[in-house]
Amino acid sequence: MLTVDYDLLDLGPGMTVLDLGCGEGRHAFEAYRRGAKVVAVDWGVPEVETTKRWLGAIAEAGEAPEGAAYEVVRGDLLHLPFPDASVDRVMASEVLEHIPDDVTAMAEIFRVLKPGGRAVVTVPRYGPERICWALSDEYHANEGGHIRIYTAPVVRTRLASVGLTPGASHHAHALHAPFWWLKCAVGVNRDSALVRAYHRLLVWDLTKRPWLTRTAERFLDPLIGKSLVVYADKPATSIGLSGAGGAASAERGETAAAR
Coiled coil located at which positions (predicted)? Predict the structure, then answer.
């Protein structure tokens, strides 16, 4: 299940791409299959091991083209272990909503991107996420859970505050929003026949990609798509890392002053 549109990310063979907060690697896998040099990053040890194992399986199966490469590392998104201006693309999917200091994470994305590079961030969309929070504290109020609900203007403003230039955006996974509403309504960890039935529908859609559900989701994404996806570029002639860091510091200061 991919949230990122790789054509809008403009990811080409041979490019170096970071997948930040890679989880179990779904976006890293597709980038690797497209011939990129993928570096998947996560803080969780199980996530790192799972992603490494599956990327190895893709390599052994010959599903990646010649020239593609991968690496999986454990790393902190607030202190990325990569040099300045060293990567072509950055993906951060469904991770910023977990990070208290999200502006510093965005500043790190700016820092490691080459001038002219592109990043994509995806976060839960305001409307569907607000419904989940209203239905269930269990959904978000747990260790490592979601700590904020973004609006699109906030995402774009914070990206711009670190020196990135926000561009295209879209929504994704409309069929998943009702699934999570159901889970929140009956209890996130409770067994339910209705939730199981809906989950089977999602698995069918994921594995078979039938015309009916693909068409339905395409029309519903602008209305109830569960994820907001925003693409942003690092200017080819940037303001410099000190300027970006200063903007990030100012943003944090403004946030603190508003509390």
Answer: none
Per-residue pLDDT reduced to its tens digit, 64-118: 999 999 999 999 999 999 999 999 999 999 999 999 999 999 999 999 999 999 9
Topology classification of domain 6-125+139-171+226-258: Rossmann fold (3.40.50)
- Rounded to two decimals, what is the model's pTM? 0.90
Residue 147, Cβ neighbours under 10 Å: how many? 13
> Which residues share a beta bridge with 76?
79
Burial of 103 (0-12, 13-18, 19+ CB in 10 A): buried
* Tokens read off for 84: 């300045």
Mention every residue, 6+ apart, whose C-beta is less than 8 A from residue 231: 8, 9, 118, 119, 120, 166, 167, 168, 169
CA–CA dist 192, 250 (Å, integer): 47
Evaluate the CA torsion angle 73, 75, 81, 82 in order and state its sign: positive
Which among 185, 176, 183 has a CA at the least distance from the CA of 227? 176
> What is the rounded distance in angstroms from the CA atom of residue 169 to the CA atom of residue 116?
18
The answer to whether 7 and 30 are in contact (CB under 8 A) is: no
Outline where 88-240 has alpha helix (H).
102-112, 126-135, 152-161, 176-186, 193-208, 211-224
Q: Domain map of the chain by residue range?
A: 6-125+139-171+226-258, 174-224
What is the distance between the alpha carbons of residues 152 and 122, in angstroms, rounded to a whole number? 10
Contact (CB, 8 A) for 172 and 3:
yes
At 232-248, the pLDDT tens digits run: 999 998 554 444 444 44
CB atoms within 10 A of CB 73: 16
* Cα 9 from chain centroid (whole Å): 12
